[in-house]
């Protein structure tokens, strides 16, 4: 009996980086029209997706040349808004599909986030996931009073404490509600207790003043790919989020996460990875591959530079005429920017000692920023073959976060009409929802 995949759909970039104007996108609607998101939710639920997911950022990209101008001109990861209210709206037109929302532990306070997530979990009927990130973005940091990025290891130290506080707050009200109409008793005082947390980063009295989450606590997601990030993720994740990368790197990251889980005293069999997967499916492979070419026309090269600089925390406009990938990666790490990303992947592909020109790097950068290089395109059969291969090679635990579409809602409709039926035919995906909460939906992977 084949193991079934989990599938998420990432709406983080549906209206940015040129996607808002491509053929197949909405006409007469622009971000953040709530009806766009309600339509997405209905389509995703028709396809039995596990969840709709959104990453987030709270600043306008400004790392490239120290200015927001390029990002604003070309819509590079801008504009954004907090997806919290839009997810509430999507939950009101659906019954089963889950919702993943992102907050940065580097900037947020755990009491606020724990309280918010419990509240959202009640509104959605237990369908919320929290994706906790450390943030590598200078523009985000500046909006929360930071002059520079917090040191890489310290960001993860803060994340671990942040999640510990959230978990203790969620536990502080478990089983507390009574609601006895006859006596008038609302809660059990014995089950509502302060947490009295005093740590390196946070001091929190507790307890929460909200009712407990319908699913015990929201699902926890984390995307750390560095050794320090994997160590942090292993402490708490229900499901990990994996970057889109070559299959051999994915296999290696799965093994590294398994080792970290074992070191944390957890069973690796119970923690899946949702691999980021840009995917274009059409009625024929030729049509899908033709549509993939549109990715290279969405933004200019300087727009790609703004995207890469924002997501790494390093200004690639400063590149010298010639450099080695190893030297560049060392400089990025020394600046407390993220040591993984395009430079890491290019070094894996070509070798760390490879020398590049600035122009060559930005050409690769355009293909990377638009996800052209890593977008799979083909017929439903071709894409199902591809997903099955990656799923089995990485342990048949978790699945895929499909995103970075060429155009919305066309790409999501094509996934539901072409790919999902093919995966269902192979026994790799559910035909219907059987659980009430997101926790139950994610666990529903066996026929």
TrEMBL record:
A Pfam family this chain is assigned to: Bac_luciferase
Protein origin, superkingdom: Bacteria
Keyword set, alphabetical order: Flavoprotein, FMN, Monooxygenase, Oxidoreductase
Annotated binding of FMN, by residue: 56, 102, 152, 156, 226
Gene Ontology MF term list: monooxygenase activity; oxidoreductase activity, acting on paired donors, with incorporation or reduction of molecular oxygen
Occurrences of domain Luciferase-like (ranges): 35-337
The family this protein is said to belong to: Belongs to the NtaA/SnaA/DszA monooxygenase family.
UniProt name for this protein: FMN-dependent oxidoreductase, nitrilotriacetate monooxygenase family
Taxon lineage: Bacteria, Pseudomonadati, Pseudomonadota, Alphaproteobacteria, Geminicoccales
């Amino acid at each position: 009996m084949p193991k079934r995949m989990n599938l998420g759909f990432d709406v983080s970039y549906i209206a940015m980086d040129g996607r808002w104007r491509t053929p197949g996108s909405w006409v007469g609607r622009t971000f953040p029209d709530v009806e766009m998101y309600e339509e997405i939710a209905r389509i995703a639920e028709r396809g039995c997706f596990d969840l709709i997911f959104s990453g987030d950022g709270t600043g306008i990209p400004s790392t490239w040349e120290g200015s927001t101008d390029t990002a604003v001109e070309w819509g590079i990861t801008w504009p954004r808004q907090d997806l919290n209210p839009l997810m509430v709206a999507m939950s009101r037109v659906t019954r089963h599909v889950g919702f993943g929302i992102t907050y940065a532990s580097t900037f947020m306070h755990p009491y606020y986030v724990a309280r918010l997530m419990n509240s959202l979990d009640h509104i959605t009927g237990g369908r919320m996931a929290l994706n906790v990130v450390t943030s590598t973005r200078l523009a985000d940091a500046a909006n929360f009073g930071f002059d520079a990025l917090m040191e890489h290891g310290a960001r993860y130290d803060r994340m671990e404490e942040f999640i510990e506080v959230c978990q203790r707050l969620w536990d502080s009200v478990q089983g507390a509600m009574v609601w006895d109409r006859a006596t008038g008793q609302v809660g059990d005082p014995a089950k509502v207790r302060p947490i009295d947390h005093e740590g390196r980063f946070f001091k929190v009295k507790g307890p929460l003043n909200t009712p407990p989450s319908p699913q015990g606590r929201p699902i926890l997601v984390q995307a750390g790919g560095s050794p320090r990030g994997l160590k942090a993720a292993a402490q708490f994740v229900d499901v990990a989020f994996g970057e889109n990368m070559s299959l051999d790197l994915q296999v290696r990251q799965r093994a590294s996460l398994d080792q970290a889980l074992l070191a944390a005293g957890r069973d690796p069999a119970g923690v899946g990875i949702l691999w980021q997967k840009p995917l274009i499916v059409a009625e024929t492979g030729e049509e899908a591959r033709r549509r993939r070419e549109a990715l290279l026309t969405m933004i200019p090269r300087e727009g790609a530079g703004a995207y890469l600089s924002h997501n790494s925390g390093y200004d690639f406009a400063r590149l010298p005429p010639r450099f080695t990938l190893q030297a560049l990666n060392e400089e990025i790490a020394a600046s407390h920017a993220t040591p993984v990303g395009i430079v890491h992947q290019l070094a894996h592909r070509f070798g760390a000692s490879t020398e590049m020109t600035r122009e060559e790097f930005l050409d690769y950068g355009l293909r990377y920023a638009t996800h052209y290089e890593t977008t799979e395109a083909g017929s439903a059969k071709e894409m199902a073959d591809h997903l099955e291969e990656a799923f089995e090679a990485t342990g048949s635990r978790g699945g895929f976060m499909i995103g970075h579409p060429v155009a919305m809602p066309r790409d999501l409709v094509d996934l539901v009409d072409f790919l999902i039926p093919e995966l269902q035919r192979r026994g790799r995906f559910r035909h219907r929802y059987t659980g009430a909460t997101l926790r139950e939906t994610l666990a529903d992977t066996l026929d």
